[in-house]
Amino acid sequence: MFMTLNDQMNTLFQRGLTVIKDNYEDIQKELHWVIQQYKRNNKNIAEAMEDTFRFLTEHLIRAEFPLNHFISNLPSKMNTNPFILLLLENVVHKVLQENAKKTHHDHFSIHYVFTKISEEVFLFPYQKNSSLKDFINHLVASHQLPIDSIIVAENINNCFVATQVYTKNPSSLSLPAEKLEADTIYDLTEILYNYITGNKNNLSAVPIPYDHVTLIVFLPREDISKVIPFLTFTLKMYNDSQKSLLIAKQSQQWKDSVIMFNEKVMGSQTYTDALQNIASGFVEFLPFERSALFSYNKNEQTGLGLYGHHIDKEAIRNITENVQNLPLVHKQLKILENFGRRLKYIQPLYIRDAKGIFPEQYINQFELKSVVVVPVYLSSSNKLLGAAILDQGPWQYFKIDKDTFLALIKFGQSAGEILAKYDKERKSGKKWHFSPRELEVLKLLAEGASTFEAAIEMHLSEYTVRDYVSAIMQKMNVKNRTEAVAKAIREGLI
Asked: What GO biological process, any one, is recorded here (predicted)?
Protein backbone atom coordinates (compact mmCIF):
# COMPACT_ATOMS: atom_id res chain seq x y z
CA MET A 1 0.00 0.00 0.00
CA PHE A 2 1.47 3.34 -1.05
CA MET A 3 1.93 6.24 1.36
CA THR A 4 0.18 9.60 1.11
CA LEU A 5 1.45 13.01 2.10
CA ASN A 6 -0.80 12.95 5.18
CA ASP A 7 0.74 9.60 6.17
CA GLN A 8 4.21 11.11 5.89
CA MET A 9 3.36 14.20 7.97
CA ASN A 10 1.66 12.02 10.59
CA THR A 11 4.80 9.88 10.68
CA LEU A 12 6.88 13.02 11.21
CA PHE A 13 4.55 14.04 14.06
CA GLN A 14 4.79 10.57 15.64
CA ARG A 15 8.57 10.70 15.39
CA GLY A 16 8.59 13.99 17.29
CA LEU A 17 6.44 12.52 20.07
CA THR A 18 8.67 9.45 20.27
CA VAL A 19 11.82 11.58 20.52
CA ILE A 20 10.25 13.53 23.39
CA LYS A 21 9.28 10.31 25.14
CA ASP A 22 12.77 8.86 24.75
CA ASN A 23 14.34 11.98 26.28
CA TYR A 24 11.62 12.63 28.85
CA GLU A 25 13.78 12.47 32.00
CA ASP A 26 16.42 14.86 30.64
CA ILE A 27 13.70 17.24 29.44
CA GLN A 28 12.06 17.21 32.88
CA LYS A 29 15.37 18.05 34.56
CA GLU A 30 15.98 20.95 32.19
CA LEU A 31 12.42 22.22 32.66
CA HIS A 32 12.81 22.11 36.43
CA TRP A 33 16.00 24.16 36.20
CA VAL A 34 14.33 26.74 33.90
CA ILE A 35 11.31 27.09 36.20
CA GLN A 36 13.55 27.66 39.22
CA GLN A 37 15.33 30.47 37.39
CA TYR A 38 12.04 32.19 36.58
CA LYS A 39 10.70 31.73 40.11
CA ARG A 40 13.49 33.93 41.40
CA ASN A 41 12.39 36.80 39.16
CA ASN A 42 8.76 36.34 38.14
CA LYS A 43 6.56 34.08 40.25
CA ASN A 44 3.41 34.54 38.13
CA ILE A 45 4.95 33.41 34.87
CA ALA A 46 6.71 30.56 36.67
CA GLU A 47 3.34 29.25 37.87
CA ALA A 48 1.90 29.52 34.35
CA MET A 49 4.94 27.67 33.06
CA GLU A 50 4.42 24.86 35.56
CA ASP A 51 0.78 24.48 34.49
CA THR A 52 1.74 24.32 30.83
CA PHE A 53 4.70 22.01 31.39
CA ARG A 54 2.35 19.61 33.16
CA PHE A 55 0.88 19.16 29.71
CA LEU A 56 4.16 17.45 28.78
CA THR A 57 3.50 14.69 31.30
CA GLU A 58 -0.14 14.27 30.33
CA HIS A 59 0.13 14.34 26.55
CA LEU A 60 3.51 14.57 24.84
CA ILE A 61 4.87 11.31 26.24
CA ARG A 62 1.87 9.39 24.87
CA ALA A 63 3.59 8.74 21.58
CA GLU A 64 0.92 6.32 20.43
CA PHE A 65 -1.55 9.17 19.78
CA PRO A 66 -2.33 9.80 16.09
CA LEU A 67 -2.11 13.47 15.10
CA ASN A 68 -5.88 14.08 14.95
CA HIS A 69 -6.53 12.36 18.32
CA PHE A 70 -3.62 14.17 19.91
CA ILE A 71 -4.90 17.57 18.80
CA SER A 72 -8.48 16.85 19.88
CA ASN A 73 -7.24 15.91 23.36
CA LEU A 74 -5.34 19.13 23.99
CA PRO A 75 -6.38 20.51 27.40
CA SER A 76 -8.10 23.88 27.58
CA LYS A 77 -5.34 25.21 29.84
CA MET A 78 -3.02 25.02 26.84
CA ASN A 79 -4.59 28.31 25.71
CA THR A 80 -1.60 30.13 27.16
CA ASN A 81 1.20 32.55 26.46
CA PRO A 82 2.97 31.70 23.17
CA PHE A 83 6.26 32.54 24.88
CA ILE A 84 5.81 29.55 27.19
CA LEU A 85 5.25 27.11 24.33
CA LEU A 86 8.27 28.53 22.51
CA LEU A 87 10.34 28.13 25.66
CA LEU A 88 9.17 24.55 26.03
CA GLU A 89 10.19 23.78 22.45
CA ASN A 90 13.60 25.39 22.97
CA VAL A 91 14.16 23.25 26.07
CA VAL A 92 13.47 20.09 24.06
CA HIS A 93 15.84 21.23 21.29
CA LYS A 94 18.55 22.01 23.88
CA VAL A 95 18.29 18.53 25.37
CA LEU A 96 18.48 16.98 21.90
CA GLN A 97 21.49 19.12 21.03
CA GLU A 98 23.35 17.49 23.90
CA ASN A 99 22.45 14.02 22.62
CA ALA A 100 25.03 13.07 19.99
CA LYS A 101 22.78 10.35 18.53
CA LYS A 102 20.02 12.73 17.47
CA THR A 103 19.77 13.91 13.86
CA HIS A 104 18.62 17.10 12.17
CA HIS A 105 15.46 15.22 11.21
CA ASP A 106 14.70 14.71 14.91
CA HIS A 107 14.86 18.46 15.42
CA PHE A 108 12.51 19.03 12.49
CA SER A 109 10.06 16.48 13.90
CA ILE A 110 10.08 18.29 17.27
CA HIS A 111 9.52 21.60 15.52
CA TYR A 112 6.56 20.12 13.65
CA VAL A 113 4.96 18.85 16.89
CA PHE A 114 5.11 22.30 18.45
CA THR A 115 4.00 23.96 15.22
CA LYS A 116 0.80 21.89 15.24
CA ILE A 117 0.21 22.59 18.94
CA SER A 118 0.68 26.34 18.47
CA GLU A 119 -1.55 26.29 15.43
CA GLU A 120 -4.33 24.59 17.37
CA VAL A 121 -4.01 26.72 20.48
CA PHE A 122 -3.51 30.14 18.93
CA LEU A 123 -4.91 29.97 15.39
CA PHE A 124 -8.09 27.97 16.01
CA PRO A 125 -9.62 29.32 19.25
CA TYR A 126 -13.13 28.88 17.85
CA GLN A 127 -12.62 25.12 18.08
CA LYS A 128 -12.15 25.25 21.83
CA ASN A 129 -15.58 23.73 22.63
CA SER A 130 -15.89 21.41 19.65
CA SER A 131 -14.98 18.15 21.43
CA LEU A 132 -17.51 15.35 21.95
CA LYS A 133 -17.25 15.95 25.69
CA ASP A 134 -18.35 19.58 25.35
CA PHE A 135 -21.03 18.67 22.82
CA ILE A 136 -22.65 16.10 25.15
CA ASN A 137 -22.37 18.48 28.08
CA HIS A 138 -24.31 21.14 26.15
CA LEU A 139 -27.04 18.63 25.26
CA VAL A 140 -27.53 17.53 28.85
CA ALA A 141 -27.33 21.05 30.28
CA SER A 142 -29.96 22.41 27.86
CA HIS A 143 -33.25 23.42 29.55
CA GLN A 144 -35.08 22.75 26.27
CA LEU A 145 -34.17 19.06 26.10
CA PRO A 146 -35.66 16.62 28.67
CA ILE A 147 -32.43 14.62 28.98
CA ASP A 148 -31.70 13.55 32.55
CA SER A 149 -28.20 12.18 31.98
CA ILE A 150 -25.85 10.62 29.43
CA ILE A 151 -23.24 8.02 30.34
CA VAL A 152 -20.38 7.32 27.92
CA ALA A 153 -19.45 3.63 27.80
CA GLU A 154 -16.28 2.34 26.15
CA ASN A 155 -15.33 -1.20 25.20
CA ILE A 156 -12.07 -1.80 27.04
CA ASN A 157 -10.59 -5.30 26.84
CA ASN A 158 -13.96 -6.78 25.79
CA CYS A 159 -15.69 -5.17 28.75
CA PHE A 160 -18.02 -2.15 28.70
CA VAL A 161 -16.86 0.53 31.14
CA ALA A 162 -18.67 3.75 32.16
CA THR A 163 -15.94 6.33 31.54
CA GLN A 164 -17.82 9.65 31.64
CA VAL A 165 -21.05 10.87 33.24
CA TYR A 166 -23.07 13.95 32.28
CA THR A 167 -26.18 14.79 34.29
CA LYS A 168 -28.56 17.72 34.53
CA ASN A 169 -28.95 17.24 38.27
CA PRO A 170 -25.86 15.76 39.98
CA SER A 171 -27.92 14.55 42.92
CA SER A 172 -30.12 12.39 40.67
CA LEU A 173 -27.28 10.02 39.77
CA SER A 174 -24.81 9.11 42.50
CA LEU A 175 -22.10 6.82 41.15
CA PRO A 176 -19.46 5.08 43.30
CA ALA A 177 -15.79 5.99 43.17
CA GLU A 178 -14.79 2.67 41.58
CA LYS A 179 -15.41 2.19 37.88
CA LEU A 180 -18.59 0.51 36.72
CA GLU A 181 -18.20 -2.23 34.12
CA ALA A 182 -20.12 -5.15 32.64
CA ASP A 183 -19.91 -7.69 29.83
CA THR A 184 -22.74 -6.07 27.84
CA ILE A 185 -24.36 -2.66 27.44
CA TYR A 186 -27.59 -4.15 28.81
CA ASP A 187 -25.86 -5.32 32.01
CA LEU A 188 -24.08 -1.98 32.41
CA THR A 189 -27.41 -0.15 32.03
CA GLU A 190 -28.96 -2.36 34.72
CA ILE A 191 -26.11 -1.45 37.06
CA LEU A 192 -26.56 2.25 36.34
CA TYR A 193 -30.26 2.03 37.25
CA ASN A 194 -29.21 1.04 40.77
CA TYR A 195 -27.53 4.42 41.27
CA ILE A 196 -30.44 6.62 40.13
CA THR A 197 -31.68 8.42 43.25
CA GLY A 198 -34.76 10.06 41.70
CA ASN A 199 -37.88 8.55 40.16
CA LYS A 200 -36.23 5.76 38.16
CA ASN A 201 -39.61 4.27 37.15
CA ASN A 202 -40.26 7.26 34.93
CA LEU A 203 -36.86 7.06 33.20
CA SER A 204 -35.86 4.92 30.24
CA ALA A 205 -32.33 4.18 29.10
CA VAL A 206 -31.61 4.25 25.37
CA PRO A 207 -28.16 3.14 24.10
CA ILE A 208 -26.92 5.05 21.05
CA PRO A 209 -23.71 3.81 19.35
CA TYR A 210 -21.46 6.67 18.31
CA ASP A 211 -17.99 6.34 16.83
CA HIS A 212 -16.00 4.06 19.20
CA VAL A 213 -18.27 4.57 22.24
CA THR A 214 -21.89 3.98 23.27
CA LEU A 215 -23.98 6.79 24.75
CA ILE A 216 -26.49 5.54 27.35
CA VAL A 217 -29.18 8.24 27.46
CA PHE A 218 -31.57 8.46 30.41
CA LEU A 219 -34.75 10.48 29.74
CA PRO A 220 -38.52 10.42 30.55
CA ARG A 221 -40.37 7.59 28.80
CA GLU A 222 -42.94 9.92 27.25
CA ASP A 223 -40.18 11.92 25.50
CA ILE A 224 -38.33 9.03 23.84
CA SER A 225 -40.15 9.22 20.52
CA LYS A 226 -39.44 12.94 20.22
CA VAL A 227 -35.93 13.24 21.65
CA ILE A 228 -34.10 10.16 20.34
CA PRO A 229 -34.62 10.91 16.59
CA PHE A 230 -33.51 14.49 17.24
CA LEU A 231 -30.51 13.26 19.24
CA THR A 232 -29.35 10.78 16.60
CA PHE A 233 -29.73 13.41 13.89
CA THR A 234 -27.80 15.95 15.97
CA LEU A 235 -25.00 13.44 16.56
CA LYS A 236 -24.84 12.78 12.84
CA MET A 237 -24.57 16.50 12.14
CA TYR A 238 -21.85 16.80 14.77
CA ASN A 239 -19.97 13.85 13.28
CA ASP A 240 -20.22 15.33 9.79
CA SER A 241 -18.90 18.66 11.02
CA GLN A 242 -15.94 16.95 12.72
CA LYS A 243 -15.14 15.03 9.55
CA SER A 244 -15.32 18.23 7.51
CA LEU A 245 -13.01 19.96 9.97
CA LEU A 246 -10.55 17.06 9.84
CA ILE A 247 -10.58 17.04 6.04
CA ALA A 248 -10.03 20.80 6.00
CA LYS A 249 -7.02 20.46 8.30
CA GLN A 250 -5.56 17.54 6.38
CA SER A 251 -5.94 19.44 3.13
CA GLN A 252 -3.54 22.02 4.56
CA GLN A 253 -0.84 19.53 5.52
CA TRP A 254 0.88 19.88 2.17
CA LYS A 255 1.61 23.47 3.22
CA ASP A 256 3.18 22.16 6.43
CA SER A 257 5.51 19.96 4.38
CA VAL A 258 6.48 22.93 2.18
CA ILE A 259 7.26 25.08 5.23
CA MET A 260 9.41 22.34 6.79
CA PHE A 261 11.25 21.78 3.50
CA ASN A 262 11.91 25.51 3.08
CA GLU A 263 13.31 25.75 6.60
CA LYS A 264 15.61 22.82 5.90
CA VAL A 265 17.02 24.04 2.58
CA MET A 266 17.36 27.65 3.76
CA GLY A 267 19.65 26.38 6.51
CA SER A 268 22.17 25.26 3.88
CA GLN A 269 25.59 26.86 4.34
CA THR A 270 27.20 25.68 1.09
CA TYR A 271 26.29 24.38 -2.32
CA THR A 272 27.00 20.82 -1.19
CA ASP A 273 24.80 21.33 1.87
CA ALA A 274 22.03 22.56 -0.41
CA LEU A 275 22.24 19.42 -2.56
CA GLN A 276 22.11 17.17 0.51
CA ASN A 277 19.24 19.06 2.15
CA ILE A 278 17.16 19.16 -1.02
CA ALA A 279 17.62 15.46 -1.75
CA SER A 280 16.89 14.41 1.84
CA GLY A 281 14.05 16.91 2.21
CA PHE A 282 12.08 15.30 -0.62
CA VAL A 283 12.13 12.05 1.39
CA GLU A 284 11.71 13.44 4.90
CA PHE A 285 8.69 15.65 4.21
CA LEU A 286 6.98 13.80 1.36
CA PRO A 287 5.85 10.16 0.96
CA PHE A 288 8.95 8.98 -0.90
CA GLU A 289 11.76 6.60 -0.02
CA ARG A 290 14.51 7.54 -2.51
CA SER A 291 15.53 10.70 -4.33
CA ALA A 292 18.13 11.58 -6.95
CA LEU A 293 19.02 15.14 -7.93
CA PHE A 294 20.14 16.12 -11.44
CA SER A 295 21.25 19.33 -13.14
CA TYR A 296 20.14 20.16 -16.68
CA ASN A 297 22.29 21.62 -19.46
CA LYS A 298 19.98 23.15 -22.04
CA ASN A 299 22.66 23.64 -24.70
CA GLU A 300 23.84 20.05 -24.58
CA GLN A 301 20.39 18.62 -23.71
CA THR A 302 21.95 16.52 -20.97
CA GLY A 303 21.18 15.65 -17.37
CA LEU A 304 24.06 15.35 -14.90
CA GLY A 305 23.76 13.38 -11.65
CA LEU A 306 24.44 15.53 -8.58
CA TYR A 307 23.32 13.72 -5.43
CA GLY A 308 21.22 10.84 -4.13
CA HIS A 309 19.42 10.08 -0.87
CA HIS A 310 18.78 6.46 0.21
CA ILE A 311 20.32 5.44 -3.11
CA ASP A 312 23.86 4.81 -4.40
CA LYS A 313 25.30 8.35 -4.56
CA GLU A 314 28.29 7.18 -6.57
CA ALA A 315 26.04 5.66 -9.23
CA ILE A 316 23.97 8.84 -9.44
CA ARG A 317 27.04 11.06 -9.85
CA ASN A 318 28.28 8.87 -12.69
CA ILE A 319 25.14 9.53 -14.72
CA THR A 320 25.38 11.84 -17.72
CA GLU A 321 22.39 11.24 -19.97
CA ASN A 322 21.01 12.88 -23.10
CA VAL A 323 17.38 13.72 -22.32
CA GLN A 324 16.41 12.64 -25.84
CA ASN A 325 16.86 9.11 -24.50
CA LEU A 326 13.91 9.80 -22.20
CA PRO A 327 11.16 10.58 -24.74
CA LEU A 328 8.44 11.54 -22.27
CA VAL A 329 10.76 13.85 -20.35
CA HIS A 330 12.08 15.33 -23.59
CA LYS A 331 8.51 16.03 -24.71
CA GLN A 332 7.83 17.94 -21.48
CA LEU A 333 11.00 19.97 -22.00
CA LYS A 334 9.85 20.94 -25.49
CA ILE A 335 6.56 22.18 -24.06
CA LEU A 336 8.49 24.19 -21.50
CA GLU A 337 10.73 25.73 -24.17
CA ASN A 338 7.72 26.76 -26.27
CA PHE A 339 5.38 27.95 -23.54
CA GLY A 340 7.63 28.37 -20.49
CA ARG A 341 7.09 32.08 -19.90
CA ARG A 342 3.31 31.68 -20.16
CA LEU A 343 3.20 28.93 -17.55
CA LYS A 344 2.51 29.86 -13.92
CA TYR A 345 4.44 26.85 -12.70
CA ILE A 346 6.18 23.74 -14.05
CA GLN A 347 4.31 20.57 -13.23
CA PRO A 348 5.86 17.34 -11.92
CA LEU A 349 5.68 14.30 -14.17
CA TYR A 350 4.22 11.11 -12.65
CA ILE A 351 5.26 7.92 -14.45
CA ARG A 352 3.25 4.86 -13.42
CA ASP A 353 5.73 2.40 -14.92
CA ALA A 354 9.26 3.46 -15.86
CA LYS A 355 9.63 0.56 -18.29
CA GLY A 356 9.75 1.93 -21.82
CA ILE A 357 10.18 5.48 -20.50
CA PHE A 358 13.63 5.24 -18.90
CA PRO A 359 16.60 3.42 -20.45
CA GLU A 360 16.60 -0.26 -19.53
CA GLN A 361 20.01 -0.04 -17.85
CA TYR A 362 18.71 2.44 -15.25
CA ILE A 363 15.52 0.46 -14.64
CA ASN A 364 17.56 -2.64 -13.78
CA GLN A 365 20.36 -0.81 -11.97
CA PHE A 366 18.04 1.15 -9.64
CA GLU A 367 15.07 -1.28 -9.70
CA LEU A 368 12.62 1.35 -10.91
CA LYS A 369 8.85 0.97 -11.13
CA SER A 370 6.75 4.08 -10.48
CA VAL A 371 8.67 7.37 -10.39
CA VAL A 372 7.99 11.09 -10.20
CA VAL A 373 10.15 13.61 -12.06
CA VAL A 374 10.05 16.96 -10.26
CA PRO A 375 11.34 20.01 -12.16
CA VAL A 376 13.77 22.17 -10.19
CA TYR A 377 13.31 25.65 -11.59
CA LEU A 378 13.38 29.42 -11.06
CA SER A 379 9.80 30.66 -10.72
CA SER A 380 10.63 34.21 -11.84
CA SER A 381 11.72 33.07 -15.30
CA ASN A 382 10.55 29.44 -15.35
CA LYS A 383 14.15 28.54 -16.11
CA LEU A 384 14.77 24.83 -15.64
CA LEU A 385 17.86 24.09 -13.56
CA GLY A 386 17.42 20.36 -13.14
CA ALA A 387 15.11 17.75 -11.70
CA ALA A 388 14.60 15.42 -8.77
CA ILE A 389 13.57 11.83 -9.50
CA LEU A 390 11.63 10.21 -6.65
CA ASP A 391 10.14 6.83 -5.84
CA GLN A 392 8.91 4.78 -2.88
CA GLY A 393 11.61 2.11 -3.04
CA PRO A 394 12.88 -0.67 -5.35
CA TRP A 395 10.24 -2.06 -7.72
CA GLN A 396 7.49 -0.16 -5.86
CA TYR A 397 4.29 0.87 -7.59
CA PHE A 398 2.54 3.92 -6.14
CA LYS A 399 0.19 6.79 -6.92
CA ILE A 400 0.40 10.42 -5.85
CA ASP A 401 -2.54 12.40 -4.52
CA LYS A 402 -3.44 16.02 -5.17
CA ASP A 403 -1.79 17.28 -1.97
CA THR A 404 1.52 15.62 -2.81
CA PHE A 405 1.32 17.02 -6.33
CA LEU A 406 0.83 20.57 -5.01
CA ALA A 407 3.69 20.18 -2.55
CA LEU A 408 6.02 18.87 -5.28
CA ILE A 409 5.49 22.03 -7.32
CA LYS A 410 6.54 24.18 -4.37
CA PHE A 411 9.44 21.88 -3.46
CA GLY A 412 10.81 22.16 -6.99
CA GLN A 413 10.48 25.93 -6.88
CA SER A 414 12.19 26.26 -3.48
CA ALA A 415 14.98 23.90 -4.54
CA GLY A 416 15.51 25.99 -7.67
CA GLU A 417 15.75 29.24 -5.72
CA ILE A 418 18.35 27.92 -3.27
CA LEU A 419 20.45 26.21 -5.98
CA ALA A 420 20.36 29.35 -8.13
CA LYS A 421 21.59 31.37 -5.15
CA TYR A 422 24.62 29.15 -4.60
CA ASP A 423 25.20 28.72 -8.31
CA LYS A 424 25.36 32.50 -8.66
CA GLU A 425 27.81 32.73 -5.77
CA ARG A 426 29.95 29.98 -7.24
CA LYS A 427 30.09 31.76 -10.60
CA SER A 428 30.94 35.15 -9.08
CA GLY A 429 34.50 36.37 -8.55
CA LYS A 430 36.89 33.98 -10.29
CA LYS A 431 33.97 32.12 -11.85
CA TRP A 432 35.31 28.71 -10.83
CA HIS A 433 33.28 25.76 -11.98
CA PHE A 434 33.72 22.58 -9.98
CA SER A 435 32.17 19.18 -10.55
CA PRO A 436 30.35 17.54 -7.61
CA ARG A 437 33.38 15.25 -7.18
CA GLU A 438 35.80 18.18 -6.98
CA LEU A 439 33.57 19.85 -4.40
CA GLU A 440 33.53 16.65 -2.37
CA VAL A 441 37.34 16.49 -2.47
CA LEU A 442 37.51 20.11 -1.32
CA LYS A 443 35.15 19.39 1.56
CA LEU A 444 37.20 16.39 2.70
CA LEU A 445 40.42 18.40 2.51
CA ALA A 446 38.78 21.12 4.60
CA GLU A 447 37.96 18.46 7.20
CA GLY A 448 41.65 17.57 7.39
CA ALA A 449 41.64 14.42 5.26
CA SER A 450 44.75 13.39 3.35
CA THR A 451 44.52 12.32 -0.30
CA PHE A 452 44.73 8.71 0.90
CA GLU A 453 41.87 9.20 3.39
CA ALA A 454 39.81 11.07 0.80
CA ALA A 455 40.32 8.19 -1.64
CA ILE A 456 39.00 5.69 0.90
CA GLU A 457 36.01 7.89 1.72
CA MET A 458 35.12 8.37 -1.96
CA HIS A 459 35.93 4.77 -3.00
CA LEU A 460 38.49 6.00 -5.53
CA SER A 461 42.18 5.44 -6.10
CA GLU A 462 44.61 7.88 -4.48
CA TYR A 463 45.90 8.79 -7.96
CA THR A 464 42.40 9.85 -9.03
CA VAL A 465 42.01 12.03 -5.93
CA ARG A 466 45.39 13.64 -6.63
CA ASP A 467 44.19 14.45 -10.14
CA TYR A 468 41.11 16.12 -8.63
CA VAL A 469 43.32 18.13 -6.26
CA SER A 470 45.57 19.23 -9.12
CA ALA A 471 42.56 20.29 -11.19
CA ILE A 472 41.15 22.25 -8.24
CA MET A 473 44.45 24.08 -7.62
CA GLN A 474 44.79 24.89 -11.31
CA LYS A 475 41.23 26.31 -11.53
CA MET A 476 41.72 28.41 -8.41
CA ASN A 477 45.26 29.46 -9.35
CA VAL A 478 46.69 28.55 -5.95
CA LYS A 479 49.97 26.93 -4.93
CA ASN A 480 48.83 24.42 -2.33
CA ARG A 481 45.84 22.63 -0.82
CA THR A 482 45.69 24.85 2.25
CA GLU A 483 45.26 27.94 0.10
CA ALA A 484 42.63 26.16 -2.00
CA VAL A 485 40.62 25.22 1.08
CA ALA A 486 40.90 28.75 2.51
CA LYS A 487 39.64 30.30 -0.72
CA ALA A 488 36.83 27.77 -1.03
CA ILE A 489 35.62 28.55 2.50
CA ARG A 490 35.90 32.29 1.91
CA GLU A 491 33.84 32.04 -1.28
CA GLY A 492 31.18 29.88 0.40
CA LEU A 493 31.88 26.82 -1.75
CA ILE A 494 32.22 24.53 1.27
From this structure: regulation of DNA-templated transcription
